[in-house]
Structures are given as structure tokens and as C-alpha cells.
Amino acid sequence: xxxxxxxxxxxxxxxxxxxxxxxxxxxxxxxxxxxxxxxxxxxxxxxxxxxxxxxxxxxxxxxxxxxxxxxxxxxxxxxxxxxxxxxxxxxxxxxxxxxxxxxxxxxxxxxxxxxxxxxxxxxxxxxxxxxxxxxxxxxxxxxxxxxxxxxxxxxxxxxxxxxxxxxxxxxxxxxxxxxxxxxxxxxxxxxxxxxxxxxxxxxxxxxxxxxxxxx
Length: 215
Known about the structure:
The chain is built from 10 helices and 8 strands. By secondary structure, it is α+β, with helices and mostly antiparallel strands. It has 2 domains: 6-98; 102-213, no CATH class.
């Protein structure tokens, strides 16, 4: 979000009007650890409105800013609306980007719905390595199910998931079909089948994809 949030505008404008710095505002809010108080106020200004840390800032904030309670409530309400609209716009951009980059794909369906070891599964490549079926997209879409069927027949067991029970082919963003092990269509979907991605972190650092495959 390019512009400041309404709650940030309110806090910073009142600070200027009252001649308060962040440290003084933290003291007014009762923080004994000034650095922690400043971080929590900054968090609220950045849009953290619901965490326990945020509640410590927002409790009695009207008194600290010397404004009516409704003034703070209105700023919070408007902030939530702004954040929801920003998320809607971001989701629309993600959807458009996904549709633009979409390519037909296929995935194995297995007896197990969750990996037996989610950490190792993620570190060794996740769905793209263990469940994705390679398709020759230079061939006609009518061949995709047959290609996936041949792969499924050669893959009776899947590491982390157990027995293969079928496969799914994503033909378009709005059309996917699940097949049984005999290659018979058993279910149609009006949205491409998307497997959840697993992210692996060491501390706060996300392992890059190339490391995740290098096990």
C-alpha cells in the first residue's frame, strides 16, 4: 500500500499536534521498555491491528492521543477497509498473473492426503518433484490423459504418500478432470487443481528452491 494507513495518519498527526515523539507516546501508553513500545506502535501504524502487541498499543490509545474514543475507532475501521481492498486488489493481480502463466499440468492422486514427513517432503522438492506428472505439451490436449495414465501406471507408490489411486489433469485454469487408475474420468472441476506449496525455513530464512531439491 503506497499511502499511509488512516490509523498511522491519526497517530502521527496527533503526535505533531501535541509535540510528542514516539518515545513520549510509548511512555503515555505505559511502556517501560521504550524500544519495545516504539516497535509496537510502528507495528500498528503498519497495519498490525489484532495481535496481542497491537492490543497493548490500542488499549487507551484515545487518552494517549487526547482524542475521543470514536476518533480512534473510526480510524481503525477505515484502516481495515483500506487493507481489505488492498488485499482484494493483490489477489486480483495474483489471479491475473496465474492465468497469464498457466500451462496444462497433471498430478498423481494418492491414498495418503498428507505427506508422511512434511519437512522432508518440502526439502526434497514438494509436489513438483513427487506428485507432478511430466506432460509433453507439444502434443494435443486430447493426449494429456493418456500421457498421465501411462505415468501413473508406472508409479504405483509415491514417496511420502503411499499407493497411487489415480491422477488429475489441469487442461485450463477453469477445467480439470480426475481419473481413476484405469484412465476413466471420475470427477470434473471448474478450477485447476492446485497443490499446496511447502516452504521450509531455517530460523527466519526461507530455503531457496535449489536447496530444497539438493537433498
